[in-house]
TrEMBL record:
Gene3D superfamilies: 3.40.1350.10. Belongs to the UPF0102 family. NCBIfam families: PRK12497.1-3 (NF009150), YraN family protein (TIGR00252). One of its GO terms (molecular function) is nucleic acid binding. Pfam families: UPF0102 (PF02021). This is UPF0102 protein C7H79_11385. It comes from the Bacteria. CDD domains: PoNe_Nuclease (cd20736). InterPro entries: Restrct_endonuc-II-like, tRNA_endonuc-like_dom_sf, UPF0102_YraN-like. SUPFAM superfamilies: Restriction endonuclease-like.
Length: 113
């Protein structure tokens, strides 16, 4: 399964949970954020991870401290560009596992500052 397919599964799942898609694959010089969603008034920066097996620690283990720092810097850039410092924010991870991403684990507020 490709990353784009995993992200589409993630978008569909989160929309079923009543989140609204704001942006997908937001890129800047600091890095990329897979999904930016709204959960009520909260802006949610979502990292999507897909792993077909847990041999190397699974999907959650792949979100390293370095990756987290890049996501936080990219989120700051997004907030600056769109002048959106008023909204509360959080960082979530959506973990997909299994051969076709059939197992979904949504971790809310998993890291930040």
């Amino acid at each position: 399964m490709k990353g784009s397919e995993a992200e589409q599964i993630a978008v569909s799942y989160l929309q079923q949970q009543h989140l609204v898609l704001v942006a997908q694959n937001y890129r800047c010089r600091f890095g990329e954020i897979d999904l930016i969603m709204r959960d009520g008034v909260t802006l949610v920066f979502v990292e999507v991870r897909m792993r077909t097996n847990d041999r190397y620690g699974g999907a959650a283990a792949s979100i390293t401290a370095t990756k987290q720092a890049k996501i936080v810097r990219t989120a700051r850039h997004y907030l600056t560009v769109f002048n959106n410092f008023e909204s509360p924010c959080r960082f979530d991870a959506l973990l997909l596992s299994g051969s076709s991403g059939q197992k979904i684990e949504w971790l809310r507020d998993v890291f930040g500052e």
